[in-house]
Amino acid sequence: xxxxxxxxxxxxxxxxxxxxxxxxxxxxxxxxxxxxxxxxxxxxxxxxxxxxxxxxxxxxxxxxxxxxxxxxxxxxxxxxxxxxxxxxxxxxxxxxxxxxxxxxxxxxxxxxxxxxxxxxxxxxxxxxxxxxxxxxxxxxxxxxxxxxxxxxxxxxxxxxxxxxxxxxxxxxxxxxxxxxxxxxxxxxxxxxxxxxxxxxxxxxxxxxxxxxxxxxxxxxxxxxxxxxxxxxxxxxxxxxxxxxxxxxxxxxxxxxxxxxxxxxxxxxxxxxxxxxxxxxxxxxxxxxxxxxxxxxxxxxxxxxxxxxxxxxxxxxxxxxxxxxxxxxxxxxxxxxxxxxxxxxxxxxxxxxxxxxxxxxxxxxxxxxxxxxxxxxxxxxxxxxxxxxxxxxxxxxxxxxxxxxxxxxxxxxx
Length: 413
Description:
alpha/beta
């Protein structure tokens, strides 16, 4: 948008210099008015109905808990604030706890490790009968130190030699590009432990019992009380690499859940957990990874009549994949991908959402363009995305903006 505005300014100046200032101004104003006309950005959905978060806020026995997992780049605690506030408005939760709770994450077996931060917000309805606990995982502290090797390239010694826009792009690349590479290396285990710690705190404690401003490890083995796990509802919101971390993290958790007692295992197997994946990158991030231990066996594990139904990890994991066609790092989930590349025991189903979160402009008749950076980072600011996560699709709660602005093709088995 800034580049377009500069282009418009240059056009107006050129017209003025030729004695046609009024014409140049008129052309520029007409151009802007055209770009700011009715929003016709794409929103196409293929999949089954989506419940969203709203139906689970009235749970009298448990809580609705949401964990957000960021993608590449450095993220400080509080990065999800705009999304949380939009979500609260959409769900009509105008009351918030006066302060956040922060837990420094660490490894149970090496408590000197810094595995990031978990920030928890408590959102309530006006009568305080409906409640949402929002957990924000910031794991980028794990990779930050390794990216120091590129810090010299951001210094004035090198950056001043670049054009202004190119310098901004290079700094963005230096911040985000290394993370997928680091994830495939030695830090992968620490990142997955960070996710497991966040999920553990979700399942173990409600608001009053959560630690605050403390670095503390959580253990699934601390006690035998599984009432939260039985009664609470869970959902994940992930961005780019965060989706891969979530899938891998749940598979890792499953590997040691089998060492727990039968009541704990059975409680996990009964859960249905959706993942709302923003800027989905699962196909790209699958490159170079081994196939899962169990694949192409979804019918056996996920249908009640299946021979291996008792061996499932979850009853269902719904992947709701948001992809902007102009996001250079985002992909839809193709047919057959889940069966071949994702663990059958997760019982995954897929809804693909093809949505323009970045505005598309006519570049002076040279063609249409959208800022690919906006297309990559704009999902959690888009009202349609927030409405789909909050209230779903194909139910009585579906938001007006989704009904009016999105085209839905329902799929059946």
